[in-house]
Amino acid sequence: MTISDRVRIKDVRVLSDGWTTLKNTTFEYRRANGEWQTQHRETYERDNAAAVLPYNRARRTVILVRQFRLAAFIRGYDDLMIEAAAGVLDDASPEVRIRAEAEEETGYRLHHVHKVFEAFMSPGSVTEKLHFFVAEYEPEMRVSDGGGLAHEGEDIEVLELSIDEALARIADGRIIDAKAIMLLQYAALHMFR
């Protein structure tokens, strides 16, 4: 039996359709004991996205970005968020989109991106799946200042940190973005051993 044999969608209502779509779904779910249970859940329908961690093995450095995030601010985070460069796929392949996003946000033109894993970041309520990449960079690959696109509301600072400094910022709470944490831990295990 597959999971689709245990779920019957009964009703879907759109509650909001702005930057993201918020839906309320009524469904029946067959529990492990065989009983059907009616449940209601709200989901944010978000397109899939990709994130990348540019790294330089010889210099032991990584490129991250820093920007304002309203949701974190509302939750009391009173600083700019240090993150891995990322963006929504917009119907492009993850590899194509993350190269373009990296150049927009960091100013680095990455030649070869390597996919390392995929993950749902908040599967209890958000449909978005992220594709995670690493990519080697050299200083001469910088083609602009980066900073993102002003017409999209982006005002991004580019950070070049040593891997040790980046990991220390996770430990002391200065990096709390899940994308950055996951990619930095991957890099520590696989790229900077």
Automatic annotation (TrEMBL):
Family matches, as Gene3D superfamilies: Nucleoside Triphosphate Pyrophosphohydrolase
UniProt xrefs under PANTHER family: NUDIX HYDROLASE DOMAIN-CONTAINING PROTEIN, UDP/ADP-SUGAR PYROPHOSPHATASE
Catalysed reaction, written as an equation: GDP-alpha-D-mannose + H2O = alpha-D-mannose 1-phosphate + GMP + 2 H(+)
One GO biological process term: ribose phosphate metabolic process
Originating species: Bradyrhizobium cosmicum
Protein's name in the database: GDP-mannose pyrophosphatase
Gene Ontology terms: cellular component: cytosol
Keyword Hydrolase: yes
InterPro entries recorded: NDP_pyrophosphatase (IPR004385), NUDIX_hydrolase-like_dom_sf (IPR015797), NUDIX_hydrolase_dom (IPR000086)
Domain Nudix hydrolase: 45-183
Chain positions recorded as Mg(2+) binding sites: 86, 101, 105, 154
Record-level Gene Ontology MF annotations: hydrolase activity, acting on acid anhydrides, in phosphorus-containing anhydrides; metal ion binding
